[in-house]
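In response to reviewer comment 3 from the previous cycle, which asked for concrete evidence that the modeling workflow produces usable outputs, we include below a single protein chain processed end to end. The sequence was submitted unchanged, and the resulting structure tokens are shown without manual editing.
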Amino acid sequence: MRHFLCIQHQPEKIIIHHFKFSIMKKQKRQVSQSEAMKARWKRRIVIEKSYPESTAQWMAERLERLLDHMLYGHAMIAYHKQNGDFKFVKGTLIYYEAEFHKAYDPTKVEGAVVYWDVEQQGWRTFLVENFMEWRPIQ
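The workflow returned the following structure tokens.
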């Protein structure tokens, strides 16, 4: 509890007000980088696609597992391009560090997910909200 005095000067009199304030500290729960990342993706999916939160949560969790898997393996990824075309591609992130000279950090993914298209032999991206599903492959 904090106390404050407020002094008002008016012609020929001084008015003193006494205030008591209870300062409420905003308590923040510590969240992992992974949880924060999925929460950002979830918000983006809900805003861009108007999907229910449960669907957005599922998509964010699947996307996180995809990125973890692609760091050491290949995956078949289903998503829609921005123009609405359906894509079903074989992707990986195995070559990311060698190509970009830094470790891949999924927590830095805001909107576009980068991957190496194995069949087209090039780096491609898709938007988080356009992700549909994935499966690991050999």
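The first helix runs from residue 33 to 49. We consider this sufficient to address the reviewer's concern, and the full set will be provided in the supplementary archive.
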